[in-house]
Amino acid sequence: MTDNTSWKDFLDLIAKLVGLAASISIVASLIFDWGFFFALNLSFLEIPSGLSDHVRSALIWFPKVVTALGGIFVFEMLTRRIEQGMSEEEIIRSSSNPEQTARLRDSPYKLVAYSAVFLVVAYVLVGDILLAMLPFGLIVLWFIFSGWAQSHPRIIKRRPFHLRLAAHFLPPIAIWLFFAGYNDAVRMFQSTVPSSRLTLTNATSPTPATLLRQLDRGILIKDADNTVSFLPWSEIKKVETSGKYTSSKGALCSWFGVACIQASNSAASKQETKSNQPLQTTPPQTARP
């Protein structure tokens, strides 16, 4: 009876965790899409997006999250190994000059704080030239503000730890997701080469366009005149996106022309012919009126 109860509790816990993860993913996707549409001067009211469209957005931001967490994990392991697993207090106490070591250990944090202030102020002054670095500055400034605002002994005593933890980390996560979507939209919109060719139902020849987003009800594109348009699937006959595999030559071949392995002409020609064929997407039947 005990084993059955424990398995039931375990399955209930797994079901709750899956539901919580799904809810968090939807909220994260909404923030990501909000940044994406905001960069294009659009809102959710102007885009006929559904819940499945926002769930699909997780396929865009989730690899970025995994990469960022992986980088943080590797960096933490590296610094722990260099510092021989000692805490900050142990490193300072074990040095011959604790005061100088404390100042030296604190200097990188001051440099990061000053850099964050500089980046935010510089973005206000010069604009999108520093757009890629703006999230870093905002996140660092929030960590500094949150740490100061919640450091009073009465706040620490009266406010539960999980609330202070959420207030400390949730806003930076939201900032990162928003600007991840924002920067994606800017990068795609500023692309000078159309990524796709569209064949409309009332046209015989394809039209070049930059595909910004595929939705259940249609697609969002950048036209040749740098305007953003939404086309329902009922007006689209075919979407062609060219893809080509490019092999990695390595540093020796790219920089010095050494150790370059070339495929035979016939094989390379066959591969190029095959890879240059556009990927064709037909409108989903369920999305047509």
Q: What's this model, at a glance?
A:
The protein contains nine helices and six strands. With 289 residues, it is an alpha+beta fold. It starts with a helix and ends in an 8-residue tail after the last strand.
Labels describing this entry:
six-stranded antiparallel beta sheet; alpha+beta; single chain; 9 helices; 289 residues; extended; 2 domains
Describe the structure.
It is a single chain. The protein is α+β, with helices and mostly antiparallel strands. It folds into 2 domains: 2-189, no CATH class; 196-244 and 268-287. Helix content is 60%, strand content 12%. It has helices at 2-39, 51-82, 88-93, 98-126, 134-149, 153-158, 161-189, 251-256, 265-275, and strands spanning 196-200, 207-214, 218-222, 228-232, 236-242, 278-281. Strands 4-3-2-1-5-6 form a 6-stranded antiparallel sheet, covered by helices on one side. Strand 2 (207-214) and strand 3 (218-222) form a beta hairpin. Helix 5 (134-149) packs antiparallel against helix 7. The chain is extended, with a radius of gyration of 26 Å. The protein starts with a helix and ends in an 8-residue tail after the last strand.
